Amino acid sequence: MTNPVDPRPDERRKAARIPFEPLRIRLNGSREGILLDLSEAGALLVMATSPPRDNTCRVTIEWRDTPVVVAARIVRSEQRQVRLESATMTRKDYNVALEFLDMTAATTAAIRHIITAS
User: Fold this and answer.
1) Regarding beta strands 68-83 and 31-38, do their DSSP bridges make them parallel or antiparallel, or are they unpaired?
2) Domain definitions of the chain by residue range
3) How far apart are CA 16 and CA 111, in angstroms?
4) Cα-Cα-Cα-Cα dihedral sign, residues 107, 43, 63, 79
5) What pLDDT is attached to residue 61?
6) CA–CA separation, 100 vs 70, rounded Å?
7) Does the 18-117 domain belong in CATH 3.90.1640.10?
8) Total-model pTM
9) What confidence tens digit (pLDDT) does each residue in 38-66 have?
């Protein structure tokens, strides 16, 4: 298990985020991304395209044999440039922050299980 990331004093997060090995996610069943960190309140993803801010979506976290599905709102999407050592051009992708919505007890337990098992 990894240690929680200490929130900065100016952070507004409701829960500490846990970094772990990247997991594949899907937004609305089709748009793929990589989950970078996770908390019981939300997540940070890397995606090739930028979803519109404040849109709601269905997020599927592909974890082991049990996908976890949760409703979420896009809080922000920030472009970043990625330069690979062997490439001459940079690639752009997006850090996408999500806030989870309408969490049931079962969904909260599933997210907590992913966090503690990572």
Assistant:
1) unpaired
2) 18-117
3) 13
4) positive
5) 93
6) 7
7) no
8) 0.77
9) 999 999 999 999 999 999 999 999 888 88
Find where tokens 């049931």 sit: 104
- The predicted structure's pLDDT at residue 45: 94
* Residue 87 pLDDT greater than 50, yes or no: yes
Helix residue ranges per DSSP H, the chain: 105-117
Facing residues of 57 across strands? 72
Phi, psi at residue 111, to the nearest 5°? -65, -45
Q: Which H or E run includes 74?
A: strand 68-83
d(CA 33, CA 59): 10
CB-CB contact of 114 with 70 (8 Å): no
* β pairing state of 31-38 and 18-27: antiparallel
How many C-beta atoms surround the C-beta of residue 33 within 10 A? Answer: 25
pLDDT of 81 reads 76
The dihedral built from the CA positions of residue 111, 102, 13 and 30, taken in this order, carries a sign that is positive
